[in-house]
Design brief:
Shape: elongated
Radius of gyration: 44 Å
Distance between the termini: 131 Å
Structural class: alpha+beta
Strand content: 15-25%
Number of strands: 18
Length: 615
């Protein structure tokens, strides 16, 4: 069932169904749009409307009660005949055109004798382009588009296959990338893709779309006549589709179909990711603002870390702007992808250029609002975290990492000096190759660290020896002990290579190498054992072990800069002795010129008794 309406055409009333009316109105508007720019154009359109009214009268006299779309199509076809409505002589306003063309052709032939073949080929290409684009205007083609119809419009303008332009645009991405890397313009393949897509977007904004029938004809280079306008209006598509260029064009079309499908699949995956991210962010924001203590929970995207509820209490508009702009920044590309997929499946119409510009402006505005607000919120959150970290990660008034604090506390170390130190303990180059064992360590690039860690041990009066394993990048760090007086021993400087510990290991291994080799030849189990500073080094069937544990033999023999540092004859008259490591020049009497030092495995050993007064 169709709805009929009554129209007044040239003072006469006619019954016409809605589809027929829309087709008739579109045709008349296209005629008026074209002929309205010409002198006397309004009279031409009025004459056409009068002729349409006469033909409608004839149909009514024949017994037609309501005019249908088929009647309108037939009338448009009859009225649109060029010999009835146009003066074909206009196309021949320049009778000398062919002569001029022939003359130019002859001139070019003569000129071809005066130039080399390269110039002739260039002239031929230029003439070919001129012939292909003659009488045409560049529009975006709405009837054969993948995105905005830019490449299809270029194909129509140059009378070529749109598939060549599409595949060429994709190949251009791979061809341009090495050149841009050479001139250091773009450093990543995604940035090249983004630049080409930006160029495409600019063209889509600058090149108009062929929406009106006369624009479609101008895009195709056809004369704007009532007949051609009738063809466009009646068929509701462009009058002539671009012809594929044989097998190559079909092959490229298949390739482009696969490429399009690939990118559509990627877009679908991105859409799913955006949907999941949007859902998680919405849920996280709701939890943060409704659940007490949620800022301490492990939420997606570290939403809890931003501490939004506390900031909202002081600066509500900034938090609202951030949350809203974040959701919009995720929703806009998600909506665009969903709309694109629906338009590909034919369930909805593609976006118009105005709608696209509106969404792009909205997305850019959301980013411009989200990024500054996020930076501000992140700075406030970082400041709060630093304050909280300083409160919970402080050892004897010195802020440090949890690992540093745990090691010093468990080892009973007191930090007497801790200035200009990047850290207070470290792990990674322990002398047995274990990268997890921590040790005392300080570092400063300008050799300005002032570090002193001390430990006190209860002992009986007597003579003691202090040993430790240490290394230093430069002079200045010292091992010390406080007994009857102050005892100081500098740490040998080897950096992170060699060291006296590795030398002792190599020397003792060399002394036992002959017997070890003989044992290996006899296929007997062999052991070479040595003890340095109470640490047992053992070679068992050519495998190096320290305290019974297999270690990286190469790293241990390389040394990593470790040396055994010893202080002998420490006289202790009281009930305790203090010892440690220091880089404080005021304490050691030696300026520190080392960027870093390490010290570990401190051992205090009783070596003798105090002499009695009688002795």
């Amino acid at each position: 069932m169709k709805k009929n309406i009554t129209i007044n055409l040239c003072g006469r009333l006619f019954q016409i169904d809605e589809d027929a009316y829309e087709l008739l109105q579109q045709y008349v508007e296209s005629l008026r749009s074209y002929f309205g720019r010409q002198e006397g154009g309004e009279e031409i359109v009025d004459d056409i409307e009068a002729r349409i009214a006469e033909l409608f009268d004839e149909l009514r006299q024949q017994g037609t009660e309501a005019i249908t779309i088929d009647h309108v199509k037939g009338i448009i076809t009859r009225i649109g005949e060029p010999e009835q409505m146009t003066d074909e002589d206009n196309a021949n306003d320049n009778p000398n055109a062919n002569d001029n063309a022939n003359g130019n052709a002859n001139g070019n032939d003569k000129e071809g004798h005066r130039y080399d073949s390269f110039r002739s080929a260039a002239d031929g290409i230029r003439e070919n382009i001129r012939e292909r684009t003659k009488g045409k205007r560049l529009y975006r083609n709405p009837n054969d588009k993948v995105l905005a119809g830019v490449l299809s419009g270029l194909a129509a303008y140059t009378d070529t296959d749109a598939t060549f332009w599409r595949v060429g645009f994709v190949l251009l991405t791979f061809a341009v990338y090495p050149f841009l890397r050479i001139i250091h313009l773009f450093y990543g393949f995604p940035s090249v893709c983004f630049a080409l897509l930006l160029i495409y977007l600019v063209l889509a904004l600058l090149v108009p779309e062929a929406k009106k029938p006369e624009q479609v004809l101008e895009m195709e280079g056809k004369d704007v006549t009532p007949q051609n306008l009738a063809d466009v209006v009646v068929d509701e598509k462009k009058p002539a589709q671009q012809q594929r260029s044989g097998c190559l064009g079909s092959f490229l079309s298949v390739i482009f179909t696969f490429i399009t499908g690939f990118f559509v699949g990627i877009a679908a995956i991105i859409g799913v990711v955006l949907l999941v991210c949007l859902f998680l962010i919405v849920i996280s924001v709701i939890i943060v603002f409704t659940v007490p203590g949620a800022t301490r929970l492990s939420l997606p995207f570290d939403i809890g870390y931003l501490n939004l509820p506390e900031l909202y209490a002081a600066h509500p508009w900034i938090v609202i702007a951030f949350v809203v702009s974040l959701l919009v920044a995720l929703f806009v590309p998600l909506y665009a992808i969903v709309h694109m997929l629906l338009s590909k499946s034919g369930k909805t119409q593609p976006m118009g250029i105005g709608q696209r510009i509106l969404w792009i402006v909205l997305w850019v505005a959301a980013l411009c609002c989200m990024i500054p607000s996020l930076i501000w919120i992140q700075e406030r959150a970082s400041e709060r975290y630093r304050t909280e970290y300083a409160r919970t990660h402080s050892y004897q008034g010195v802020q440090m990492s949890n690992d540093d604090m745990t090691f010093l506390r468990r080892g009973g170390w007191n930090l007497l000096k801790a200035e200009n130190c990047a850290h207070y303990t470290y792990n990674g180059d322990y002398y047995n190759g274990d990268s997890d064992t921590r040790y005392l360590d300080a570092w400063n690039q300008n050799c300005e660290e002032v570090y002193q860690a001390e430990r006190r041990e209860a002992v009986e009066p007597g003579i003691y020896r202090l040993t430790c394993i240490g290394r230093a990048e430069g002079p200045g760090p010292c091992i010390y002990a406080l007994g009857e007086k102050k005892y100081i021993q500098p740490i040998p400087v080897y950096g992170d290579k060699g060291g006296e510990l590795a030398e002792q290991i190599r020397r003792q291994l060399a002394e036992n190498q002959a017997s070890l080799s003989d044992s290996l030849v006899r296929k007997e189990r062999s052991h070479v054992r040595m003890k340095i500073m109470g640490i047992e080094f053992e070679v068992d069937d050519d495998e190096l072990k320290i305290n019974g544990e297999a270690v990286d033999q190469y790293r241990v023999k390389e040394g990593m800069g470790w040396s055994v540092v010893t202080i002998d004859n420490i006289v202790v008259t009281g009930d305790s002795v203090a010892y440690g490591v220091s880089t404080d020049a005021a304490f050691t009497g030696q300026p520190c010129r080392a960027q870093w030092f390490s010290a570990t495995d401190f051992k205090l050993t009783r070596t003798g008794n105090l002499k009695s007064p009688k002795q």
